[in-house]
Inverse folding.
């Protein structure tokens, strides 16, 4: 059997360093979970996917704004 070996810690550090990558992977995981749930239950509505995308975008925007304010706060504290 083929064995795939990779450095998991390096992968995790790379993913943690980029917030956009984290939110993109989380969004894909959420959409795949919805797809799996729809396949099991049999009644999947497109509104669920739209809602998932809107919520993921909102969290991504929140993270961007939070990062900017933290950077701004750090600069203010550094000057004082």
């Amino acid at each position: 059997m083929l064995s795939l070996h990779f450095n998991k810690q390096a992968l995790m550090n790379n993913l943690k360093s980029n917030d956009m990558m984290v939110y993109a992977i989380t969004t894909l995981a959420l959409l795949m979970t919805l797809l799996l749930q729809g396949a099991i239950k049999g009644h999947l509505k497109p509104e669920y996917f739209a809602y998932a995308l809107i919520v993921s975008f909102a969290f991504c925007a929140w993270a961007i704004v939070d990062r900017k304010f933290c950077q701004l706060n750090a600069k203010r504290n550094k000057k004082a």
About this structure: Helices lie at 8-17, 19-41, 46-79. DSSP finds three helices and no strands in the chain. Residues 47 and 65 are 27 Å apart (CA to CA). The two ends are 61 Å apart (CA to CA).
